[in-house]
Task: inverse folding
């Protein structure tokens, strides 16, 4: 439901290692977007340490919200109509920082809270991008560090899960493979940067021909580790082939879903959607195979990885306000 009296929504997102706040007008206009990340700290250990992530978020949540309000000319927050906050899925300590802060602001400002599912939030990055809104129904490919899902979206808040990963998410596979190759953390951007040239070595394209919309990426990691033990390939060459294998599967499955469900739009989202090779392959495949029957959408790179702008946008289009007494964090939600 699109609310009539709601103009400015403050979004808050703390589901993983980012602390983010944003102000969005009418669900589609980005007024401010502030993201603080503790990624550099986690890079030392090759992955996120949940307890440390939550401690960093406790330090940065109020300054980040303050900056989002000040930079949107909304401080003091008299004109903010509602507070949108990610309530799950995510790391429980991290989610609690955002949810408890939202409760406090709701109580102090007497404004409603709109709880937002992080995964649904990612999808709404596609409403913040261009001056045209995606026409529904849409096939959504959501690819992040924790999730890989193909979803049929028939309306706002109307989602049907078509398939998901049976083991590792695509981003998780890139992160683990980057670690095997010694390329650092987070792995997705490191793989993208290293993926300069192939050498003819082939990795598998798991489940690419299966007649379902599920994925499996853990075998790819095992295959890469095996090739990496043999002499003859550089980490650049393996990163290249890995990126080709992951993107081939993602694009093929999305295309198959589009052919089955005849959507009006295809929406790509999630941190892995920042990958330029995936974006290119998706555009060229949609143009070649589906022509002008389908419009392809992807958020700008800065709105693919975690942020609070898409949380505010999702809240606008799925406006179900609740009072501060009712909201609780839930680490295990799926679409
Ligand atoms: O959506 P996101 O920021 O956090 C989760 O909700 O998980 O996604 C993070 C994931 C990580 O696995 C990261 O390696 C991947 O997105 N990622 C990328 C790129 N940027 C981030 N993967 C491939 N290419 C990128 N440029
Ligand atoms: Zn995310």
Result:
């Amino acid at each position: 439901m699109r609310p009539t009296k709601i103009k400015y929504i403050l979004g808050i997102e703390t589901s993983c290692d980012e602390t983010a706040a944003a102000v969005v007008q009418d669900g589609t206009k980005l007024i401010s977007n502030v993201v603080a990340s503790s990624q550099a700290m986690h890079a030392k250990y090759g992955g996120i340490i949940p307890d440390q992530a939550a401690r960093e978020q406790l330090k940065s949540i109020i300054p980040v919200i303050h900056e989002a309000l000040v930079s949107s000319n909304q401080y003091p927050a008299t004109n903010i109509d509602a507070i949108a906050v990610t309530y799950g899925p995510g790391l429980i300590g991290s989610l609690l920082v955002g949810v408890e802060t939202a409760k406090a602001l709701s109580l102090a400002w007497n404004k409603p809270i709109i709880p937002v599912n992080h995964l649904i939030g990612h999808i709404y990055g596609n409403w913040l991008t261009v001056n045209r809104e995606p026409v529904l129904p849409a096939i959504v490919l959501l690819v992040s560090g924790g999730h890989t899902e193909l979803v049929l979206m028939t309306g706002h808040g109307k989602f049907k899960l078509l398939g998901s990963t049976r083991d590792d998410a695509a981003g998780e596979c890139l992160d683990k493979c980057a670690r095997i190759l010694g390329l650092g953390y987070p792995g997705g951007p490191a793989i993208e940067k290293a993926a300069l040239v192939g050498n003819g070595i082939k990795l598998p394209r798991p489940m690419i021909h299966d007649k379902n919309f599920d994925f499996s990426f853990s075998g790819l990691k095992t295959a890469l580790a095996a090739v990496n033990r043999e002499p003859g390939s550089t980490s650049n060459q393996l990163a290249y082939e890995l990126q080709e294998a992951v993107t081939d599967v993602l694009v093929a499955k999305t295309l198959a879903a589009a052919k089955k469900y005849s959507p009006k739009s295809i929406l790509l989202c999630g941190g892995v959607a920042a990958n330029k090779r995936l974006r290119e392959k998706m555009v060229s495949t949609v143009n070649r195979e589906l022509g002008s029957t389908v419009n392809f959408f992807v958020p700008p790179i800065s709105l693919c990885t975690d942020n609070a702008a898409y949380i505010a946008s999702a809240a606008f289009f799925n406006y179900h306000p609740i009072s501060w007494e009712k909201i609780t964090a839930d680490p295990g939600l799926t679409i």
Remarks:
- The mean pLDDT is 96.
- The first strand starts at residue 8 and ends at 13.
